[in-house]
Design goal:
Ig-like domain-containing protein; 165 residues; transmembrane helix; elongated; single chain; three-stranded antiparallel beta sheet; membrane; Immunoglobulin-like; alpha+beta; 2 helices; six-stranded mixed beta sheet; Ig_V-set; 38% strand; 2 domains
């Protein structure tokens, strides 16, 4: 009986830890260094006019580039900055960012009007490369520390509760 109760709390704590640290499972992560150039692919066909959005934390998504294919060439309609450009890559309209800055970090995704429906393409989370090994990223360690903290707290309550009986 006690082990079932502890297992239930453990699974619940792990689930709650996942809620505390949300992530975008469908987005790929691309690491960059400041000042470099990065190209983000879109998995929607270039036959559709494409709009690129950037979403940074709790801010409203921002249109960074509108593009279309005219006479075989990628053409910009609107652009947030002259550092943003469009090109053809894997049969889609890809977004390129030159001289990456801190304000460029965030989630980028493409949107197109496909058969009278807005379709959102695969997202790319743009993050700065860490100077250390790739496995030593702060958000991962933060999740582990918070998870173990919650687990320790729950176990302390369980042990205290069991000893009080």
């Amino acid at each position: 009986m006690k082990s079932h109760w502890i297992t239930t709390i453990l699974v619940g704590s792990i689930t709650m830890a996942g809620v505390w640290m949300p992530f975008v499972p469908a987005a790929e992560v691309q690491h960059v260094q400041y000042g470099s150039t990065v190209t983000l692919g879109c998995n929607l066909s270039y036959i559709y006019d494409t709009t690129w959005f950037k979403h940074h934390h709790d801010l409203t998504p921002t249109v960074v580039l509108c593009a279309s294919l005219r006479e075989g060439q990628a053409v910009k309609g609107c652009q947030l900055s002259p550092r943003f450009s469009v090109g053809l890559m894997n049969r889609s309209l890809a977004l390129s960012i030159t001289s990456v800055e801190e304000t460029d970090l965030g989630l980028y995704y493409c949107v197109a009007n496909v058969d009278s429906r807005l379709t959102v393409g695969r997202g790319t989370m743009l993050q700065v490369s860490s100077p250390g090994p790739s496995w030593f990223l702060f958000p991962h360690w933060y999740c582990v520390v918070v998870g173990f903290g919650v687990l320790s707290m729950v176990l302390a309550v369980c042990i205290t509760h069991c000893k009080a009986k």
